[in-house]
Each structure stands twice: as C-alpha cells, then as structure tokens.
Design goal:
Layout lengths: L3 H20 L5 E5 L25 H15 L5 E5 L9 H11 L2 E6 L6 H9 L2 E7 L4 H8 L4 H15 L4 E8 L7 H8 L6 E6 L16 H16 L4 E3 L6 H4 L16 E4 L4 E3 L13 E2 L5 H7 L13 H4 L4 H4 L7 E2 L4 E2 L3 H5 L2
Parallel strand pairs: 1-2, 1-8, 2-3, 3-4, 4-5, 5-6, 6-7
Antiparallel strand pairs: 8-9, 9-10, 11-12
Helix pairs in contact: 2-3, 4-6
C-alpha cells in the first residue's frame, strides 16, 4: 500500500497534466458503437439496448472515419474500442474491423460473448482483434435473470472458452457488474474463473443510470461498496489479476489500491465516441443530451470536431458545484466522472469518496 503523502503527490502531478490535456487533448480511445441492437435485455443497460430499430452507419462511413483519423492523427497509441448493443449482430462486422486491421489500428471489443463460436473466434483473430471483455454478471441463474436471457451464462462462458482455445489475443478479460443481488457471489465466481485461462477480471459497480434507475433493488448500499473495494484490494494483494474499472475517484484509502492507475475521467481529453447513427460524443456512458453532441460523421470530419469542439468536457465539473468546489479533494476528484453527473441538478449522482471514508 502507498502512503497518503505519496498518493497526493502523484495525483497533484496528474491534475497538472490533466490541465494540459484541456489545451492539447490526445485521442487514445475511439469508441465505435456499431449498433444499438442486442440479443440480451440487461436490467442495467445505460443505452437501453435490445430488440430495437435503429439507424446504423454503413461500412463505408466507418472506413472513411478511420481513413481520416489515420491521415490526421496517425494510428500510434490509439485503440479503437468496439461496442454496442452487441457488435457481432452486424453481418458486416468483419468487413468493418478487418479494414481497421489493414490501416494498422489496434482494436478491441466488449461483447456479451453469446455469439462467439469457434469459427467466430478464429475470424476475430484474423481481423486483428487484440483485446476483448466479455460480461459475466454472477452465477448462471443470477446472470441470466440480470440479462433476461435464458441460457446466456452458458453461451457466454463457452464464448470465452472458444477465445481461449483459439489463442493469439493480447487480453481476454471478464467484466462483472456488481449489484446488491450478486455481490455475495464474487468468491464463487472467482473459483470458476480461476480455472480458466483468462488474463484479467474487471469488477465494476452498477451505476444509477439507464435502465438501472428503474431497479433500485439492484443498486449497491454503502456497505456493499465498502465490501466490494475491500474484496478487490485483498485479491490484488494476493497477486490476483483483479481490478476495478476506470469510473470514480475513490479517496485516500483506495486510490491506486484497486487498479493500476489513479482516477482520471478521460471523456473528451483521451476518449471520443461515435454512436450508431454517427453522432460524435465523448464517452458512450454519458447521458445522451443534445448539448453533448459535438457533431456527426455524416457531415463533419471527425478530427476537426475532436480538435475544435468538446469544450464542455475540457473543464472541471467540481468548479460548477458549490459543495464540490470547496471539497479538499477537488483537485484529485475534479467532480468525478461525467457519466455519473446529474446535469439537471448540477451535482454528482455518486460520491464514493464520502461513502468509503465512513
């Protein structure tokens, strides 16, 4: 464990670096929301994906965007992060992503895993996929109920095994969304995953957004949060490849203890996204509001938007809220994550620092 003084010194340096990114942002993660269609109906989905009718950009538009990014910004130190919905529902998925490989982009994907057959795993490797994160949200019955998909757990776990059997990927990760209903299954889940040759297990908390707002029984209690972070920290201290996600400032006790880096909301400074219908936004987890749409690739050059827009994200949220602006952790938290900010009431939806300090 690092001492608090060292943590503060490191986070102060990060805060200064972040201010520089406001002036000179560096695109590192470009998210492609290829579709809003999904073969599952997850109770927590922030985008309310499922069996929906949605506009989807044709392959040639995705190709043009990648051409522009390569021409204007290059491919070094950039990751295309493919998501949805379930990206593999697109019949032209491999046409789009093989083009990314041909251009020299690194790319990875988030998936529910249910469509990854042995042949699909082989095609993913051929198309150049380096990383993948597959969602496993509890033991079989819990997972299937949470994702409202009978047999989903078994198909997802088989999908993970198909990737392992194929081999040749940089990282195969399982992501678990922790809820009040599955938090007591973490130990049993670990025993299952420990027998699999995955590279890491990412544990994240359910967020009070999207469909989750309709299911308050799933949201974590303060005790749940403290248990979850203690669990992750103890696993890491024992050398296990377990980590918390990128969301949220965690205060002195847990910063740098449950993940390999300090908190930094990268929306609009490292991270941009293109939605299924072409809107250019920051992080896909952020509430979809008109003021956050910076352009659309159907009529805007992505890199022009990246360089000249996004001002709403290149600032400290803490400066806009009276309580946050006087918080002693202000320069380390910055108002926390954009995706968990209540923009109607101009306040954070969640302050884990306060919860974990109790």
């Amino acid at each position: 464990m690092l001492d608090v003084r060292t943590k503060h010194a490191n986070m102060e340096k990060l805060a200064e670096y972040r201010k520089g990114l406001f002036r000179q942002p560096q695109l590192r993660n470009l998210f492609f929301e290829l579709t809003e269609r999904c073969n599952e109906r997850c109770l927590h989905c922030g985008s309310s994906c499922g069996d929906v009718q949605c506009s989807e950009l044709p392959p040639e538009v995705w190709h043009r965007v990648m051409d522009e990014v390569k021409q204007d910004l290059g491919t070094d130190h950039k990751m295309i992060c493919v998501t949805g919905g379930e990206p593999l529902l697109r019949t032209d998925f491999f046409e789009i992503m093989d083009y990314a490989r041909q251009l020299g982009f690194s790319w990875g994907m988030t998936s529910n895993g249910t469509l990854i057959t042995p042949d699909t795993a082989k095609m993913l490797k051929k198309a150049g996929m380096r990383t993948i994160s597959v969602s496993i949200d509890g033991l079989a019955d819990t997972h299937d109920a949470f994702r409202r998909t009978k047999g989903g757990w078994e198909r997802a776990m088989q999908g993970v095994q198909n990737l392992i059997d194929e081999g040749g990927f940089k990282e195969i990760q399982i992501t678990t969304v922790v809820t009040h209903q599955n938090i007591n299954e973490l130990d049993k889940l670990y025993k299952i995953m420990d027998k699999m040759d995955i590279d890491s297990w990412r544990i994240i908390n359910i967020e009070p957004m999207g469909r989750a707002k309709q299911h308050p029984e799933l949201l974590l209690t303060d005790d749940d949060y403290r248990y979850m972070f203690e669990y992750i920290r103890n696993m890491r201290m024992n050398g296990e490849p377990v980590c918390y996600g990128c969301s949220h400032y965690l205060g002195d006790e847990y910063e740098r203890e449950v993940r390999d880096w300090y908190f930094l909301c990268t929306a609009g400074i490292y991270t941009a996204s293109i939605t299924a219908d072409g809107d250019i936004i920051a992080c896909l987890d952020i509430e979809r509001r008109p003021e956050f749409v910076q352009g659309n690739v159907l009529h805007d050059r992505f890199t022009d938007v990246w360089k000249n827009k996004f001002g709403i994200f290149r600032r400290d949220l803490a400066d806009t809220n009276e309580k946050c602006s006087v918080c002693p952790d202000k320069d380390r938290c910055h108002g926390d994550s954009y995706h968990s900010w209540d923009f109607d009431n101009n306040q954070p939806l969640l302050c884990l620092k306060d919860i974990l300090a109790q």
